[in-house]
Amino acid sequence: MRASNGRAVSGIAPPATTPDDAFFDELHRFEFAHLAERGESYLDYAGAALYGASQIRAHDEMLRTRLFGNPHSEHGPSRAATEAIDAMRRRVLAWFGVDAATHIVVFTANASAAIRVVAEAYPFGPERAFILAADNHNSVNGVREFARRAGAAVHTLPLDAELRLAEPGARLAELARGGSGLVAIPAQSNFSGVRHPLELVELARHLGFETLLDAAAYVPTSRLDLVRCPADFVALSFYKMFGFPTGIGALVARREALERLERPWFAGGTVLYAASGAERHRLKGGAERFEDGTPNFLGIAALEAGFALLERVGSERLARRLARLTAELLDGLAALRHGDGFPLVRIHGPRGAAARGATVAFSLLDRDGATIPYESVELRASEAGVCLRGGCFCNPGAAEAAFALEPAAVASCLDALGGDFAPACFRECLGAPVGALRASLGIATRRSDLRRALEVISLWASWASPPISRLVSKSGRPVLSSPAGTSTYAPSLR
User: Fold this and answer.
1) pLDDT tens digits, 278-288
2) DSSP for 368-401, written as a single string
3) For residue range 81-100, what is the model confidence (pLDDT) as tens digits?
4) Among this protein's residues, is 413 annotated catalytic?
5) DSSP state of 271
6) Which CATH architecture has domain 66-311?
7) 19-49+314-392+435-461 homologous superfamily
8) Which of 55, 77, 234, 255 is most buried by a 10 A CB count?
9) Catalytic pick from 387, 394, 425, 429?
């Protein structure tokens, strides 16, 4: 890969092929041909996984040959729905290495809804604090509002320069002297891909805390064993695991932990009885007391085909494949240079492949070392058929750490902007970057996707801001043009 002045911007030798490559090439042909037909290089698996063709065929077959009804009735279609839901609870528990003797699956709309189940029912108070990693999705950050309303203290575990937790064990031990509470950490950062040590779960429980593990970014590419990682509450979304169906998540909870939650209200489907005039009600036991209204029984039944796809691929094979591709992407980004040798890319988080997932956050730098606004790069990449994500990815803590934003400056700008907030205005107020780019890999990622992304990104090496090139989009139309008298660089985007 070369810039227009002829300087090499990526000198990485092509990796040797492995038996896994042949397997995933075949998988791509049979399961993800629709992706190739669209001409997209999809690198946003942390946002949503892509569904395979076998899942859609299985769902179509199920809808054509079976009949399901509202599980709150007693007729045949109702019983079929109930049986499908119960079978999928067992399936989910088995996937995480446990069973109904110790754990319960509460089906929710997504991981955020699973977290809210805990947030609104956890017995926060002056002696029960909320402790969360600075690196957390906003769905976890929002739990602090429930905690503060109950008079609980809120503490944040800080990050180091690699966006890993900074001495979390010592910090938890110190906080344990002040009482118990709920500790919330992500198994994997949705911002940087950092994998935080799962041993923290057992340590926190040993110190007297209960634990909430956000596993939404971790479980799509790695198996989570809840015997070895005994989190009290685990939140996840199935569309992040295998793309279809959307609108289904789960809270996987230890039985004794779920029983300690105190629901502040009731809804249809959650009660044994409710009386209007007498103002009495009694909640059901187990998962149903937390599953408001009619469950998404058709969506829940569709989960089986997604698990079958992941089983066919194999967790170890997928993890091995993505670790290798992630290392190649990190090497490729690090090798990109401007013509004068200045780095084009700054990685946010670990530069190496150890203790990280298949998610990479980065920014592009101009010739003077200033950060190029992520919106410009995201737009140009999209026009070229490369699907990246830009912003803070609903994880302001990791973004603030990545760009060394001072809390006082952030507070001042947010207060000043109020309802007129927009990323560009926030950036102008701070005089600093406020978002990054993210490439996240998954089951259908190919090396050609990485090459294409690196080629598109390398265009910014030849021009300051914005880059000028005769880049050709997936539709065949030029998306950028060169001013008269300037050279152009038009890489192949095959």
Assistant:
1) 999 999 999 99
2) TSPBPPHHHHHHHHHHTTEE-EEE-TT-HHHHHH
3) 999 999 999 999 999 999 99
4) no
5) E
6) 3-Layer(aba) Sandwich (3.40)
7) Aspartate Aminotransferase, domain 1 (3.90.1150.10)
8) 234
9) 394
